[in-house]
Amino acid sequence: MANLKFQRPKGMHDLTPLDWEYFQKIFNVVSNIAKINNFERIETPILEKRELFERGVGETTEIVEKEMYCLKTKGGDELCLRPEGTAPVVRAYFENGFSEFPQPVKLWYFGPFFRHETPQAGRYRQFWQFGFEILGEKDYILDAQIILISLEILKELKIEDFILKINSIGNTCCRGYFKKGLVHYLKKRKGGLCQNCKIRLEKNPLRILDCKDEKCRQIVSQGPQILDYLCEECKNHFFKVLDTLEFLEIPFELEPFLVRGLDYYTNTVFEIQEKQSNLALISGGRYDGLGKIIANKDLPGVGAAGGVERIAEILKEKKIFLPKEKFPKIFVAQIGELGKKWALKICQQLRENKIEIFESLGKDSLKAQLRLADKIKAKYVILIGQKEALQESAILKDMETGKQKEIKFEKIVKEIKKLL
Ligand code: HAM
Questions:
Q1: Domain 330-419 CATH class label
Q2: I need a surface site. Which of 84, 130, 306, 417 has the fewest CB within 10 A?
């Protein structure tokens, strides 16, 4: 490995066929849950205008400040590899005239995202997310619905060791009061904050609540809590969400310092974290101000996104899902020029009839071909030699019993169908 001239970029990985089995499993569960909940699929471009994220996610967030992959096109456009999916979906809502559709509009997506983070377990620079967004209606029940759908995905995947953490960060108005209270409290303790948080205190004090530094966490934990600052309307909204979770018997933990690393959130924010690692598997919240920022129009919204790699890791580690070894039962072997051509034709005919087969048409040695048939544990071998090809027939051999018989080419599909 170390001698390879080209290696994959740091923090990025190849999705091998085995990885893809896990991704496919997650995709199937997510797409099925999306379908039964009336979500329709949307996929936005991998590249978007830099400003969309600067304004949508927030200029002073870690994501925008430090983690975006940006480029300038020959035409002078400043574009970025999308670090997240909500701002693009809101942009797409307006650009495609979704406001004309019956509201709310329910959309889902599944694709790669990019953040230039320090790579570590469960944190990559290219990672996949699935996401759900409900746009165009503000009702507490939709927040609960998004949480319910997120939990349903984990339940369907048989993942159990997680915890739902939830908080409300109010609207811009009550958050303003909280910010003031927080800054007042933190300014007196500025000396104890890490270097980054000293800057955050001026630029975006709420981000201090996200800081992983132990000393900052200690200071924050004794400071003011946003829940005490919520206005009547925001308090009501949040209590109704919590009340619905209780009604649905969904266990949750109130996490008063959960603010999430994106500036667009209002009211409910939540994370479903793996218990052992505290890594967020699915996270989201309400973002009623994002429409105004992106298109100068009001658009309430709520959604969540899940990390596909993080979930796939759990399925793999805990052996919850084991991809089936799906070796085809039938191997087509050939000898000689004419045999090879007929083998290609017969393979095609079988495949057109949805019969899965294995072949190694590039090999001339019958011994090598049969060794392969053995390796993949083929139950039957269809052998087409020079003589058989001239007679337009093949030898069908049962590899378990050793019994063999001749079949005319025109009857091969029918005969094989009978065996399967
Ligand atoms: P987020 O929390 O930044 O939210 O990302 C959503 C999920 O993506 C996380 O819970 C985590 O599982 C996964 N994730 C994030 N960063 C990485 C990484 N570097 N490597 C691997 N997995 C990662 C959002 O992106 C919001 N757009 C979610 C949302 C949708 N809010 C409302 N609607």
A1: alpha beta
A2: 417
